[in-house]
Specification:
With about 210 residues, this protein is an alpha/beta fold. It is about 40% helix and about 15% strand.
Length: about 210
């Protein structure tokens, strides 16, 4: 029900969304959430492209949750963008895509400008409705692997957008205590995050803010 109102809110706020700071042609790489592909981020990518950013979709098909495999493929794709432009790439990611984006920044900070996530469970699948709805023998193992990686902090700026009305991801799991992360709350549903005008404005204004 909450998701159904997001397109209407976007139309109502279209002017303020369109008036956000313009980009300078820097590369932006957008990662979709679990079970979706680049089609789910079409509105976001189109919006950022019209603001002047050089936007690229994930290009890896469906995000199937195989983070270990898809992380390496994502690093390769982001590095290709970095090599092509000669400039660090900003990563914008939805839900599980944010887990991948954060790990790209952790493993290859030299090619990443910043990371912006929304509705991303920082501590693994235990904190998502889809995982809790079915048993998973690897749930504890995956969570332990994620927490172990926290010993190596992300050194690039991170913005984590979350909503208490998420409905899919436990909102507390989206809040990063790391002082390198800016946590911002919005009022969207989980599935409406990619259309929410507050999220679009936040992404645009954050991308326009210098990192160094």
């Amino acid at each position: 029900v909450r998701m159904a109102r997001e397109p209407l809110r976007l139309l109502w706020n279209l002017r303020s969304v369109a008036e956000q700071p313009r980009g300078d042609g820097r590369a932006v790489f957008v990662v979709p959430g679990f079970g979706t592909n680049d089609a789910s981020t079409f509105v976001l990518r189109t919006y950022l492209g019209r603001l002047g950013h050089d936007v690229t979709g994930w290009g890896l098909g469906i995000n199937n949750g195989q983070v270990e495999t898809q992380l390496e493929q994502t690093i390769d794709n982001v590095r290709e963008r970095f090599d092509h432009t000669g400039r660090r790439v900003s990563l914008v990611a939805w839900s599980l895509g944010g887990v991948i984006a954060r790990e790209v920044a952790r493993d290859a900070p030299e090619i990443v400008e910043r990371v912006i996530t929304f509705g991303t469970p920082l501590y693994g699948p235990r904190h998502t409705a889809s995982s809790m709805a079915r048993a998973s023998e690897r749930r504890d193992e995956i969570e332990a692997q994620i927490i172990e990686r926290f010993d190596r902090p992300i050194t690039r700026p991170v913005t984590s957008i979350y909503t208490r009305r998420d409905g899919v991801v436990t909102w507390e799991a989206c809040v990063d205590p790391d002082t390198n992360t800016v946590n911002v709350e919005v009022g969207s549903s989980h599935f409406g995050l990619g259309l929410d005008p507050d999220v679009l404005r936040l992404v645009a204004s954050t991308l326009a803010t210098p990192t160094d």
